[in-house]
Amino acid sequence: MTRQDSAVHVARVVRKYRSKDGEDRQSVSYLLRRSFRQEGKICHETLGNVSALPDRALDALRATLAGKTLLVAGEGLECTRSLAHGHVAAVVEMAKKLRFLELLGPACRERDIAFALVVVRVVHQRPKLATTKWWDDTTLECDLGLDGISTDEVYGAMDWLGANQEIIETKLARRHLANESKSSTLAYFDLSSSWVEGTKNELAARGDSRDKKKGTAQIEYGLLTDKDGRPVAIEVFPGNTADPSAFISIVDSIRRRFKLDSLVMVGDRGMITSARISALREAGDIGWLTCLRAPQIAGLARNNGPLQLSLFDEMDLAEFTHLDYPDEGLVACRNPVLAYERKRKRIELLGATEEILGTDYLGGRKWSP
After folding, report:
1. CA dist 236 → 23, 209, 224, 247, 249 (Å)
2. Is pLDDT of 242 > 80?
3. Global pTM value
């Protein structure tokens, strides 16, 4: 009698039986068995019952018997490098869904670097030199095929963007402003500024500092968006450019570059002045939406004018016209929250004034009328 080719394994044995109450039941056992050939037949020998072991221990026992090497979690492994991926991949995937690469232009290294700069701007804003160091620790370079990007290449990609700005903005305008289903297009424009260091910036000049950096040179830039706030175009101006001048400049640029027949511009009361409105009338089919100044609003309400509180008896919005504003529609809105806040401040100021007037600061005595 000879035994050959023995192997040890864990067998799952199911035994079915009928209980005293007549129900069919089954029991499951896990047996450690050795299988071998004896005189040409396969035989099994039970070495022990391991049914009491938890499932994880049974899995480990099976893997060990199968010749696998098991490691304790956290031991036996060494992480030599880890590249961040998830957040970068999410932004890249969304940009592709928005057809962002189509806006930038044909595929080239400069375009891909510019695209990478936009992704980094969304995920992790840093200066240019810090950007090149940061994306070495992400999968961005590998995913875009941009290994070993230098700082000079980054600045070169920015120059490439500047040279293709009008082409990109024209595509944005066609996508977000030009809509044949509407008779006119609504656009928003606002002006901001940033202070600069150094003396070699040809646009740097002293002007109205919006970032509270008085005494320093600055540049100004006007941003044009569609009605949903999506950026369409940006134009940079010298730091001493007045808001109305920048406004007219961007209007002329929009009409010339984007070939829009009808446009409605939205700006604050300091930007769209009476002089600017006259210029818009001369420019053609351009509408505007702005706010009146406080003296103008008071004039409309004075002497039983068209702006009266009775307009808001049923609705918070009222539309009317006035001879002082020919061919213009005036819309008034009553804000009850703002009215309550102004009333509260007015009462507090009156109370503080009465308290001061009721005290003789020199003698510390109260006075009465």
Report:
1. 86, 15, 12, 12, 11
2. no
3. 0.57
